[in-house]
Amino acid sequence: xxxxxxxxxxxxxxxxxxxxxxxxxxxxxxxxxxxxxxxxxxxxxxxxxxxxxxxxxxxxxxxxxxxxxxxxxxxxxxxxxxxxxxxxxxxxxxxxxxxxxxxxxxxxxxxxxxxxxxxxxxxxxxxxxxxxxxxxxxxxxxxxxxxxxxxxxxxxxxxxxxxxxxxxxxxxxxxxxxxxxxxxxxxxxxxxxxxxxxxxxxxxxxxxxxxxxxxxxxxxxxxxxxxxxxxxxxxxxxxxxxxxxxxxxxxxxxxxxxxxxxxxxxxxxxxxxxxxxxxxxxxxxxxxxxxxxxxxxxxxxxxxxxxxxxxxxxxxxxxxxxxxxxxxxxxxxxxxxxxxxxxxxxxxxxxxxxxxxxxxxxxxxxxxxxxxxxxxxxxxxxx
Length: 383
Ligand code: GLA
Prior knowledge:
- By secondary structure, the chain is α+β, with helices and mostly antiparallel strands.
- It contains 11 helices and 13 strands.
- The strands form 3 sheets. Strands 5-4-6-3-1-13 form a 6-stranded mixed β-sheet, with helices on both faces. It has a 4-stranded antiparallel β-sheet with strand order 10-11-9-12.
- Helix 6 packs across helix 8 and helix 8 (259-283) runs antiparallel to helix 9 (287-304).
- The longest helix is centred in the C-terminal third of the chain and has 25 residues, at 259-283.
- The protein is globular, with a radius of gyration of 21 Å.
- It starts with a helix and ends with a strand.
- The mean pLDDT is 96.
- Bound molecules: alpha-D-galactopyranose (GLA).
- Residues 35-36, 38-39, 169-170, 172-173, 332-333 line the site of alpha-D-galactopyranose (GLA).
């Protein structure tokens, strides 16, 4: 994360509140493969990235908590005695949600002041919200010596998202942001919430994110709807989650459910298997095979799970047409955000020029490009 940003957040805190704060850095995440598998208790391979949120926090000397969103120049004060979600409250609900979920555990915290800022694009599917939630719960845990484990902290962040932001997300984003490692990705088992480290040798290739710069308004309701469909089918199959179902099991149900729901569940079953195939490909250094799996995931998300959009599809089509790209797919919840691409380093420049031009021609707007590195999970900033 940008060291200038960290300095700026710290000095702004001192200026506003006349106290030395604790500084927390909390990264965003990418997901190599395993999309919409987390709430089906399946597998995914996310990684924390070198873009995220920096939060400065310290005890307040008044009865109120004051929170400043540095990048938006917005300030919000509230009392810990009466926490409620705010309709269309945006970032405020992440703060309130984390506080409320801590209080629900019977833990008492005192008033605090907080300033946060970031170098992670908002709404790009890089989990800026998970990074923010984790930074707040981590900061409060430090400040008031709450003794929460990292696992308890990510559960608090996830519940804040469910109950205050209204998105019934899985655990992947919060997990990757909290537990990320500097030199690789994590093979995450979303049932046990345990992971093992995976290092990947990209050789002459490199990861490139392309941001559509759109987030369609149906994304949140569609996300919750997908989750409901998966849970309904799991219960019809008499299994705990779709992770426990096979294609054969699902076929038995075919006449009882709609064609759309059948394809959605089938996507999840295939995607879970793809993650396991991806692990093998990565371990055997078969980058081309890994890339193909990414294209398959995109097709599944587009045609079976139906969470893509024209902007994402165009970016993936352009990648497919270019021999310098060995794999690409939409990433995250869908309906906007970024695509993840594996591109030959030597062709990076020409690829981005071609894509930029095509995107502008089709949609009359710009897409953005980010090369990223892996980074460690939520942590205190060293001085
Ligand atoms: C969002 C959610 C995650 C996960 C992804 C899709 O990022 O927050 O829990 O479900 O979508 O894989």
